[in-house]
Amino acid sequence: MSADLLARAQDILSRAGTEGVRGKVVVIKVGGASIADETVLAHLAEDLVVLKLMGTKPVVVHGGGPDITARMKAAGLPVEFVRGLRVTSEEAIRIVREVLVDTNNRALVEAINAHGDHAVGLSGDRDNLVRAKVLDPALGRVGDVTGVDADALARILGEGRIPVIACLGTGEDGGSLNINADLVAAELARAIRGEIVLFLTDVDGLYRNFPNKDSIIAELPVEEAERLLASGALGAGMAPKIDACVRVIRAGAERARIVNAKRAGALLSEFEPSAITGTRVVAKATGELKISTEKGAN
Ligand SMILES: Nc1ncnc2c1ncn2[C@@H]1O[C@H](COP(=O)(O)OP(=O)(O)O)[C@@H](O)[C@H]1O
Ligand SMILES: [Mg+2]
Predict the structure, then answer these.
(1) Main-chain dihedrals φ then ψ at residue 107, nearest 5 degrees
(2) What is the pTM of this model?
(3) Each residue of 262-276: pLDDT tens digit?
(4) What is the pLDDT of residues 35-52, one digit of tens each?
(5) How distant, in Å, are the alpha carbons of 2, 184, 248, 258 from that of 252?
(6) Which domains does the chain have, with CATH numbers?
(7) Which residues have C-beta within 8 Å of that of residue 7, sequence separation ≥ 6?
């Protein structure tokens, strides 16, 4: 299996060249829905290994989404979102943590390590990897990132391993806080100077008129993204993602993009010319690819 993946990595490099690939820190945010889907998870795991075999340094941050909702409902806890953020009570944080760490993180690490000893599972709320403060007391144990242990991540990358990080942080009281995974990915990327940041989600990108298939925005200049955020017009799931793209581009990342995890090759499309474009947030408009015409996969 790994020989296959190595061949794929070499194949892509033979076309893309090693320049601009080797040593690049690629931060990948994976939505909970992608982990819950066995087929998507298997492809994702393979592509992550290919990415590493190409010589990049992948860093994975993941959320929990649907699995957390299901477990909370089963426990009789109310499920409520405010501006896309999950209201997280003291009882809920225990479930959030269990699902993220014991189920989702483990599943993702196991899927990757089916191809060799590549990934190491981490949680943001362990060893002060991600420090946080309560974002808004009305939301309960929901955090905003205040700091990241970049050295710890650099060490893992230096060992040639893929850190796979659950989106939690340690609050000022020492307890765990639930943090939107897009935000964790953005702040990790800033801390470790991620050059390429990919947000894998369950739709093709940002739609101007969601869910009208023809309204996918292929390229969004950062100023326009900021205007959209300020206008409050962005849908609940997309607001933190666009905000995350803005943060990393403003911090100097080369590329930030939202892509559909359900499309085969989504992860490698950054290096492999393909029909998959998603939504790219750019520092300056290139004038290319204003509207994509790709057909939706949903
Ligand atoms: N304008 C929009 N374009 C695309 N998706 C949107 C838009 N507005 C709201 N959404 C929703 O955002 C969702 C993705 O965010 P989210 O559910 O938080 O998933 P993830 O786990 O990837 O963060 C999509 O499934 C879609 O329902
Ligand atoms: Mg989300």
Answers:
(1) -60, -45
(2) 0.94
(3) 998 899 998 987 777
(4) 999 999 999 999 999 999
(5) 34, 17, 6, 17
(6) 26-282 (3.40.1160.10)
(7) none
Give CA angle at 36 (44, 169), nearest 5°.
85
Identify the residues whose C-beta falls under 6 Å from ligand 1. Answer: 31-33, 63, 65, 182, 201-203, 206-207, 210, 235, 237-238
- For the stretch 193-221, pLDDT in tens is 999 999 999 999 999 999 999 999 999 99
φ, ψ at 284 (rounded to 5°): -140, 140
With both helix axes pointing from N to C terminus, report the angle between 150-158 and 181-191 in degrees, rounded to the nearest 10.
Answer: 80
Residue type, 226: E
Ligand 1 pocket test: pick from 79, 198, 210 the residue with the most ligand atoms within 8 Å of its Cβ: 210
Instruction: Measure 68 CA to ligand 1 centroid, in angstroms.
Output: 17
Tokens of 201: 């989600």
Q: Residue 101, SS3?
A: helix
Residue identifier of the C-alpha nearest atom 14 of ligand 1? 237
